[in-house]
């Protein structure tokens, strides 16, 4: 008797949905609390707290609906055999175009085209509601409907240009990889990730946003002085027009070796009127670089990727696994999809572990910025970002431990204050 892999996968998906919904309910209850955490009393204004509370509750209500629809659709696709049916149907279109349906690469690309159309149809109502109702209601959305659909079309075009060669290469590697398949797949994805990290900020990101050099002035001088003091190889300092889409703010850095770049959202500059607060935020980001957090994270991702491909090579020829999901053939892409579903339990554990590490890194980067003398400025900057982004002020400890890659503001301020007390 064959093991019911598909039923087991669907069952676990539903169990995880119920568990995560329980955590969501705990978080929803925390969001409904009418008072600020004691740590934030006198730090966050009551007006900002009420706005944050309303925004967080709106997003929470929307999240419940979105997650219920998602688990319903995903479970139905697997349980009712829609996935193998769709695979077979996608091949029938190829002869109409004069193409060979026996060619696995062409069949796979036809399948993915259908999946992309389906995902756009099912995701679009949620994206529109999130952007033009929730984000707009709370003053964040700056997009026009035209800009929204222009970004959508650009994203689809990029998928059409980049997807086929990547998918084709993966299929060829799997078909010819032999006993070293895991190594070949990992090597391909490693090179691909380096290429994408190189071309994304230079060729892809500018398709969606405008990047301009940070104007000469005090802020630029302070950031350059900080970078120089840490021997950070800063080559370019940009401002991105994030305000064309949202009033949320952020900052990030990218680049390899001696060619590093820092990008500030224009909304960050607008919201943090004090240059020291912005420099403190950059000091935190540079702390990640100085403490090698970026390198450690990259290495961890590469190890996990290799282990996943190793696991895939063990099950890719399992006819029982494919039959359980309704397939009488063993296409490469379908094998990858099925494998991803079967390792969902491990993925959740790994994700939880990575969040623990990430939160530890955030505390270390905060401590690094404080050691440079930006403790009070970082504290003020974190509070300002929390206020302006209307981030949740009250968080459930179980929910944040499971979901958050960054510690809640209360925990970060407590860590900074604890360091101050130790120094005293």
TrEMBL record:
Signal sequence, start to end: none
GO molecular function, one term: metalloendopeptidase activity
InterPro entries given in the database record: CAXX_Prtase_1, Peptidase_M48, Peptidase_M48_N
CAAX prenyl protease 1 N-terminal domain span: 27-210
Cofactor, how bound (note): Binds 1 zinc ion per subunit.
Chain residues that bind Zn(2+): 284, 288, 362
A biological process term (GO) from this entry: CAAX-box protein processing
Membrane-topology descriptor: Multi-pass membrane protein
Residue intervals of the Peptidase M48 domain: 214-418
Cofactor(s) the protein needs: Zn(2+)
CDD domains assigned to the protein according to its UniProt record, in alphabetical order: M48A_Zmpste24p_like (cd07343)
The entry's keywords: Endoplasmic reticulum, Hydrolase, Membrane, Metal-binding, Metalloprotease, Protease, Transmembrane, Transmembrane helix, Zinc
Reaction it catalyzes: Hydrolyzes the peptide bond -P2-(S-farnesyl or geranylgeranyl)C-P1'-P2'-P3'-COOH where P1' and P2' are amino acids with aliphatic side chains and P3' is any C-terminal residue
Record field: transmembrane: 6-23, 68-87, 155-175, 181-203, 294-312
Active-site residue numbers: 285, 366 (proton donor)
UniProt subcellular location: Endoplasmic reticulum membrane
Listed EC numbers: 3.4.24.84
GO cellular component: endoplasmic reticulum membrane
Record function comment: Proteolytically removes the C-terminal three residues of farnesylated proteins.
Entry similarity comment: Belongs to the peptidase M48A family.
Protein name, as recorded: CAAX prenyl protease
Native source organism of the sequence: Gossypium mustelinum
